[in-house]
Amino acid sequence: MDDEHDIDDIADVCKYLEAAGLRVTRIDVDPKVLNKRCDLSAEDVHAKYLVEVKAINDEDEIKQTLRKGEYYETVRSHVYRKRVAKEVHNAKNQLQSTAIDYPDHIWLVALIAGSKCDARFMSEQIIGTLYGVAAITDCGPAGENRRRRCLYFSESAFYKHPGLDGAIVLDPEGVSLYMNDYGRQRDRVRKSGLACFLAQHNAFYDMAKLESDFDCLVADFEGDRADEKAVFERLKQKYPGRKLQYMNWYRSEGILALTVREIFDEEIAKKLV
Prior knowledge:
This protein is α/β, with parallel strands linked by helices. It has helices at about 5-20, 60-65, 80-100, 120-130, 155-160, 185-190, 195-200, 205-215, 230-240, 260-270, and strands at about 25, 40-45, 50-55, 70-75, 105-115, 135-140, 145-150, 165-170, 175-180, 205, 215-220, 245, 250-255. The protein has one domain (about 5-270). The protein contains ten helices and 13 strands. A hairpin with a 2-residue loop joins strand 8 and strand 9 (about 175-180).
């Protein structure tokens, strides 16, 4: 049985899908089925879809620390979140079990950046996990350095799950559809009503669009992604005219929950200084 929070998340996804012209149906839970089924089926004149909704929320460790009035401090990767990889894996299994009764559907996972602390940063981690993003420094001829994202540099959720056709991402900027470049139904996804609708709003992405519009590098070659050194050497061969450097991309962050009274007292103190 879905709790209230899950129901709200599913309702948000339904709203966006219906705005794109899709007819959306909630898939009933079957207690006789051992494997969990996905949340939604949808269709338009071009395609049929199965959608599993996953909200990526703040970890319980953060919530528990803040509830105790303590300061939470950690170091996070900009380009990977273990929770995202786990939820994508679970979603693929739910889509697969549902597809027995819903053949010939496009498989999508809807990932909601549900952080109350920094939803934009969480959205960046979601994209990074889907595409196996790495941070690469591009050194220009005048000595200027620019940090660029490299897609499929490390193990990616998309490469790992070719049965998954794409991901709908909901974040503070709105909704976007990211196609799995290693998926088995790429042509169907591109021609689908959902992709065409979002493309009109500049919110449909694949590897080529991210490379051209966002100036990303792309490691679109075979190789063991666990061997970062070998992958980086291949990347330099692909872009021979550039001086590239591989870097770890983390950020230190501290989270402190303030009461309304504390915020008010702090503002008063500033005015008195």
